[in-house]
Design goal:
With 207 residues, this protein is α/β, with parallel strands linked by helices. The protein has helices spanning 14-24, 43-50, 65-78, 95-100, 121-128, 163-186; strands spanning 4-9, 31-37, 55-57, 83-86, 105-109, 132-139, 149-156, 191-193, 196-198, 204-206.
């Protein structure tokens, strides 16, 4: 697979930075071809520019999903992107976009999917009283946080946890497994049977 990554972000881009660090350290054999944000003020965009990466804002305000995604696709194709990685990207992708990159769009979500999809996953975990939560890297399909799961990591929920303390521990695991999952996909070390991603290094790690 083409190893050029296209990063989509809307905020601080901490997972983007972790991916870039993994590439720089030689842990991930890939290159970041472009970083795109739908929010011009996103801190992650400025960080990408500081790292001398091609970083561009395509503002989404006032555009419907299909029109906006056509602009995204144009930018990604311009930079010969092979794999799209969502890193805190706060927009749903259109069906046309997903069809343009079949099984080549990854997302990381701060829960053990299928539990707690959508927003405020750590708050949901605390409200439900679960003893373990974590994070999930998955392929993106046309439903919310529902694509085949590539890799997960488990994080215990402590009795005195707040959303902030739990989120910090989950984020640490996000930074670790996202690059690992990207490597799995780029190297083709998997197959999909039904909803299961098999014969890869996907594993559930308890910390």
């Amino acid at each position: 697979m083409n190893r050029r990554l296209g990063i989509l972000l809307s905020g601080r881009g901490s997972n983007f930075q972790a991916i870039a660090d993994s590439i720089d350290a030689g842990r991930l054999n890939a290159a970041i071809g472009c970083v795109i944000s739908n929010r011009p003020e996103a801190p992650g965009l400025a960080i990408a520019q500081q790292r001398k990466l091609h970083a561009v804002s395509i503002p989404s305000r006032g555009l419907d999903r299909e029109s906006y995604d056509r602009l995204l696709l144009e930018e990604l194709r311009k930079h010969d992107i092979g794999l799209v990685c969502l890193a805190g990207y706060m927009r749903l992708l259109s069906s046309a976009f997903i069809r343009a990159y079949p099984l080549r769009i990854l997302n990381i979500h701060p829960s053990l999917l299928p539990a707690f999809p959508g927003l405020d996953a750590q708050h949901q975990a605390l409200v439900h009283g679960v003893k373990f939560t974590g994070c999930t890297v998955h392929f993106v399909d046309e439903d919310l946080d529902s694509g085949p799961i590539i890799q997960q990591a488990v994080v215990p929920v402590e009795d005195d946890d707040t959303v902030e303390t739990l989120s910090a521990r989950v984020l640490k695991e996000e930074h670790r497994i996202y690059s690992e999952a990207i490597g799995t996909v780029l190297e083709g070390r998997y197959r999909i049977e039904g909803r299961r991603v098999l014969n890869n290094r996907a594993r559930m790690t308890k910390i």
